[in-house]
Each structure stands twice: as C-alpha cells, then as structure tokens.
Amino acid sequence: MLQPNFPKELILLMQGIRDLGGQAFIVGGAIRDFLLNKDFPKDLDIEVFGVEISVLENLLSKTGKLSKVGKSFGVLKLKLDDREYDFSLPREEWKTGSGHRGFQVRTLTSLAYPIAALRRDFTINSIAYDPLSHQYLDPFQGKRDLERKTLQHIGTSFSEDPLRVLRAMQFSARFEFRVAPETIRLCRKLDLAELPKERIFEEFRKLLLLSEKPSTGLETARKLGVLDFFPELKKLHGIPQDPQWHPEGDVWTHTLRVLDAASTLKTGTDSKDLELMLAALCHDFGKEPTTSLVNKRWRSHSHDEMGSAQTGIFLERLTRELPLIRKVQQLVRDHLRPVQLYNDRARVRSPAIRRLALRVPIKDLVRLAHADYLGIIEVNDRQYQFPAGEWLLEEASKLSVHERPPQPFLKGRHLLELGMKQGPSMGSLLEKAFDAQINGQIRSLKEALDWAKTMLPQESL
C-alpha cells in the first residue's frame, strides 16, 4: 500500500514524542483523503499516546508558535511555516446536556487507539497512520468501507452529536458514498434543532463548495430526514412544472440539476462560489407558494420575488452573514432577467442593463442563469452554450458594467469646485446626475459638469 509523505519537521516532532516514551499517529481526514487519492491537506491532526499534556507542551513550544486555547480538552495547536498541526491526547467524552457544549471530557493518555477511536463518527475517519513505522491502524475496517464507498457509523456515541447527520450529507456528496442502512436509521432519530446555526452552515458550505455533485448530498439529506428541519427545501419535492419548459420533472429534480450545473461554473473564489451555489439552491423557493394550474398549464408567476423573500428566511436560520444573505437574495430575485432581456433584446436599451448592474453583478447573475438553463436541458456540446448569457455579457461589456456596477461621473468634490455648498441639496443633485447617467443622458464627466452648471442656479450655492 502507498505510504504518505510528511514534512521533515513533523517527522522530527513525532520522533521526539517517541523518545519521550510516547507514540503519535496521523489521524482523521488526512489519512482518509490520501487513501482516496485526493489532495493531501496542509493542516493535520496528530493523536499522541503515552505523554502528558505538560510534557507535550514543552516539546512543541520549542518548535514553533503554540496555541493553548484547547489545552483543557487535551488539544494543542502548533503553527509551523504555512502549516498548522492539531496535537491531541486520547480522551473519553460523554453527554451531560443538550447542545454541542453539553459534554464532559477526560484525557487518558494510556488509552489504546481502538478505544480512543470509538468517539469518531465514521469508520472511514477512524484510520490512523504511524509515519515512523509506516503502519496503518484500522480497528473498524475503515479501508474496507472506503473501497465499498460506504459511510458507516462506528458506535452508539455517534448519536451524541447530531451534527454528524449533516456530515453524512456532505461526505456522501464529496466522496459519492452511500450511507449504510443502519446509519440512516440512526440519523433519522437525531434532533438537529439543538445545533448552533454556525455549525449547520459550515456543513452546507462544505457540501456546496467541496463536492462536484452536491445533488447527491441533498438526496442523502432527504433520506436522513434532514429536510424536516428545512421546510423551504422539503416543499420543493413534488411541486409540478410545465413539461414543455421543464421536461426534467418537479422543482426538486430541477433544483438538484441546477446545483450540479452551478458546481461546474465555479470560479475558484470561495466567496463568489458560495453565493452562486446558495442562489442555485434557493432560486426556485418561490415556486411552492406561487405554482397554480392556469388554462391547463402550470404557472409560477412572480416566483422570483417570492423566492427572494423565502431565501432570506432560509438563510437567516443558517448564518448571521447579512451581506451574504442579501447578495444571494438579489441573485434569486433577478435570476430570470438574463433570459427575459434576451427574449426582448430588440427593445432593450442601455438603461435597463445599467440598472440591472446596479442591483447585482452581471457575471454572477449570468452564471446563475446559465446553471438554471442547464438544469432544464439534456446537456450536450451544443446546448452547453447559453445565448442569453453571452448576449448580456457582451452588452454589459459595451457599457463597462460587466465586472462592476456603473460608477458616477459626478462627485461631491466636483460640485464643491463649482461653488456649491455642502448640504442635502448636494446629495439630491448627485442623485439626479447619476440617474441621468444611468438613463444615458450623461455619457462623460464633461457632460456631467455641463449638466451640473445648468442645474446650479436651481440649487443651493
């Protein structure tokens, strides 16, 4: 079996632990990802046996920058160059109350690795590796489950942290694994209501950013009962769509396809990609309350507006990041505009595109609308083209608003130079000038200054 390579300074530290009478193992996701032939992370988890925390602290403090924030839980964080290592002692945990803080922890350096690993969630995360002896420890047959592409919980302690249900959701998508039937049954019994929104959001973030097919995770979430806690998602299932425009099926099926399509349109910038993926997830939330049968055709009038409001409700239960929420809401609100403008392009004028660019970044909106389009069609090379998006980007580029919103030519300093006094009237005049610019009546700073001079007698000097 292939052996992973580790930085020399880490090997020296582990040799130092051995010289003190202890033993250290690389544990957790790094070993799992290595065995899956995925990128090896810079940050590693090391579990240390047979050495007390004070002795370990003394050793690590001589090597790099040491953080002792988690010392009471038997965890020390070491930063070396651009890498961070979590050194932890084996410990026992037991539930004492509700929430993720309702635990008691006791470090036991004499624990055997199989006993210490009982607190881990899935067998695939319980594999340890000793880089000094080049041996794997696999007490729960995690390598077998990696080969079987199966998520299998380890023991009854799994149910002590309901977050593990959401970890199953995102792992199933990232690795395209199935969840073992007995693990599904256990997950369906757990209550997510006690989880802080920050922890929930982090699992959704991993699902959306780290998986090529996030639809797999959402289907897993449905099987695990997760959607019971997110009615906006659950209600998408079974909502009909007009087969002429949506031959793929109901809104749930369409949303899954849009998510997977959006995943292929990521830019590599996490902040932008998260906005895109959340908007793809939420873009049709408005169809549940607006869908009705009109003249034997399914219609969802104003679902974009309704969806924006529903998106806000959904995301505010997941995160306190209000700027992110507002950006996603606006993407949802305008997700139909690229196609609408394209279909009416013979009559569309520059002001409509400028005003759209004021509300939402054009490139981001085109990516979302493109994903929405790909969620409808049966994809082949020809259909991957998105004429509406290409047209809108070209028109926005002509107006220099394809990468950022229009910037006002006229600013307060220009009015001061013309002799205008500061005050409410200055703000009012600047608004009028910018509105005229958006409407195409002002096309340069010179025209803006000429316009301002004609307006100054009517304003406060």
Automatic annotation (TrEMBL):
One of its GO terms (biological process) is tRNA processing. The keyword NADP does not apply. InterPro entries: HD/PDEase_dom, HD_domain, NT_sf, PolA_pol_head_dom, PolyA_RNA-bd, tRNA_CCA-adding_enzyme. Residues 251-374 form the HD domain. Residues 24-151 form the Poly A polymerase head domain. Keywords: ATP-binding, Magnesium, Metal-binding, Nucleotide-binding, Nucleotidyltransferase, RNA repair, RNA-binding, Transferase, tRNA processing. Its cofactor is Mg(2+). Residues 177-234 form the tRNA nucleotidyltransferase/poly(A) polymerase RNA and SrmB- binding domain. Pfam families: HD, PolyA_pol, PolyA_pol_RNAbd. GO terms for molecular function: ATP binding; metal ion binding; nucleotidyltransferase activity; RNA binding. This is HD/PDEase domain-containing protein.
